[in-house]
Amino acid sequence: MRSIWNGAISFGLVSIPIKLVNATENHSIHFRQIHLADGGRIRYRKVCELDEEEVSGGEIGKAYEDADGTMIPITDEDLAQLPLPTAKTIEIVAFVPADEIDPLQMDAAYYLSANGVPAAKPYTLLREALKRSNKVAVAKYALRGRERLGMLRVVDDVIAMHGLLWPDEIRAPEGVAPDSDVTVRDAELDLADALMDTLGEVDMDSLHDDYREAVEELIAAKASGEAVQPSESGDSGGGKVIDLIAALESSVRAAKKSRGEGEGEAESEEDEEDMADVHPIKKKTQQKSTPKSTGTKKSTASTAKKTTQKKTTTTKSTSSASSSKGSSSANSAKKQTSSGSRSTTKKKTAAPRKRASA
What we know:
Elements: E1 3-11, E2 14-22, E3 62-65, E4 71-74, H1 76-80, E5 89-97, E6 106-114, H2 120-133, E7 135-143, E8 146-155, E9 158-164, H3 186-199, H4 210-223, H5 244-258, H6 263-277, H7 279-287, H8 294-307, H9 309-323, H10 332-357
Parallel strand pairs: 1-5
Antiparallel strand pairs: 1-2, 2-6, 3-4, 5-7, 6-9, 7-8, 8-9
Helix pairs in contact: 3-5, 8-9, 8-10, 9-10
């Protein structure tokens, strides 16, 4: 990797020659501006406002614009004469626990490489000291014409440096939080915890930029002259949450389904919902269990036979309806009707028995 800055780490009286290397790279796809009429590329030219002539890079310098619009020229020589102790030095000023660094301050990341064989020993000493202390080093350094703040930590066997924003560059979050008072119920927190547990952890190396891949496929298709099929966009929901509990429950079920978990639980929940939806049929099912006591009904029919021929005829029709049970779905309604008449006949036959015993 190509170094972008050479200097030294100042660790007390110890000086460690190092090279600064970018630790990150940008994979974003960049587009050019073109003229829609003919496809010609649109370029921006640097033109002087006074003589309206285009100027080259060598003719361009720096200037500070005053409040009244006056331009105050600043040369590189002017900046080089400033007393900047960190111009070529990463000066460590303190060692602090890592959790004392506000993540909002994090900026660009770099790797620090030992520059030469003599730098290997002090470099390793600083690296191992950082490991054993479980702390990070806060340092000052100068890069691209300005002094910056940095944090040094160990990544594998390399010392990495994160550029930090100065504390006064972090804006206070005023007016960002919701204005109204909102009460969160325990049930909602429990569902949120369940969703967090279901989503669980993730291997950071498995994450990738889906949008960039889609753009690359689009470019490849258009370059080869293929027809581009519009992709189905997911329903974002417009940011509206009608029922927070329902949304959380649905999110938990969707997360479990995406991970292949809780399929049995989902099926049982659906079964319970089906049973609840057909509650009236559940009562009719209980009435179907009455044919099990066939012998009792037969004895009742026999007793009724001795008392009156009319009641015997009713009982026979009831037995005939019971024997045709399960023949087809069309006879199901008749079966339920005969079952109702059976219970009515049973009540009628019970009264003569009581009078006979009296």
